[in-house]
Amino acid sequence: MEDIILVLYVRDVEYGKRLLRFLAGKKNPRLHLELATEQKSVEYRVGTERQELVILTDQTEVKEQKEKKRRVLYLANRQDREEGKIFQFQKAENIYRELVWQLKLDYEYGKSPDLQTVCETEEGVYLVMAPDGGSSTVLSAMLSQYLGNKGKCLYLCMSGFPVYNNGELVSGREPCGEGISELLFALGQKRFAEKESALHQPFGQAWMLSPAVHYKDVLDCGAEDWSVFLRRLREECGYNSIVIEMGLLYEHTLDIMALADRVFLLQENGVQGRIRREVYERYCILEKKEALIQKTRAVPVTSKLSDWEQELELEDLKQLANHSQKMAYVERLLKGEEENVCILEDDG
Fold it and tell me: What pLDDT, in 10s, does the model give residues 153-183?
């Protein structure tokens, strides 16, 4: 099957940008997205592209032209099961599900998706990155507790300045227990799973390995080591999900991030947050890891998230796992419904 170029062309440009970011965040490998702000831009793309284009639009004057390899999907103002139409006024997740059905991308064609059901898997490797080091711990802790309620979850702190040790918030002067460092250097051992079972510590509803004794332990391992490490944790130790917290750039940081299924990039408000996000994009391009941008969602550091960070020292992790507001936040985040959670902004 050929890949599909989807050109999004709607009256409300800001809505179009938000929808484009959300769709890009789904990281469908066969869907290539563009945004057109004027009809002449659409006509130009149709005239210059040899591959078939699909236009997603709310403007009925845009007509399908098979001789120009142009197919049109209309964003309709009422719920409809008719092929060629998608109900516009619904959650972005449901628009995506209808879109992949119409384009025969994921779902079995002929079977209309249940729009009330979100079927994204909650298994996999999740990575939380804070370019300025802030708020990554609270989001990682919340994410691990949510996923720990769903299956066996492991929390790994690979930040240069970890705050959890032996499953608890303890003084940074306390020596780290055996954990990540020891297991990384046991990659070649047959009894890897047995060793991991002896090293992991309870972390609320999840588990954790104590952080590296010295940050240089992380630097000593290459990209292939991390790939083997995560694979053995999933396949041999039985973890349904792994949450990795990162805060600083090391030699292999982007290599590790590329191993994740989903990446959450925390972004503070204002111009500094935007610039740091753009620097991240530039690094991905320089390292030829453009696919990493596609699996990344920007998460605004709101006052709510900052307040929850302050509550960590007062809150037992098991309480955190049962905190309905915080777990609802994580659920919305994973479904792509949390406000402004989206793929990196396209300023064009």
Answer: 999 988 777 777 766 666 556 666 677 888 8
Q: What is the pTM of this model?
A: 0.62
Q: What is the pLDDT of residues 53-73, one digit of tens each?
A: 899 998 888 877 665 667 899
Write out pLDDT tens, residues 281-335.
899 999 888 888 888 988 888 888 888 887 877 777 878 888 888 888 898 888 8
The span from the CA of 336 to the CA of 25, in Å, is: 8
Pairing state between β 296-300 and 262-267: parallel
How far is Cα 16 from Cα 117, in angstroms, rounded to an integer?
24
Amino acid identity at 44: Y
Handedness of CA 252, 253, 256, 258 (dihedral sign): negative
Query: Given its phi and psi angles, is residue 104 left (phi above 0), alpha (psi -120 to 50 degrees) or beta?
Result: left
- Strands of 4-9's sheet in order across: 31-35, 4-9, 53-57, 70-76, 85-87
Quick one: which H or E segment has residue 280?
helix 271-286
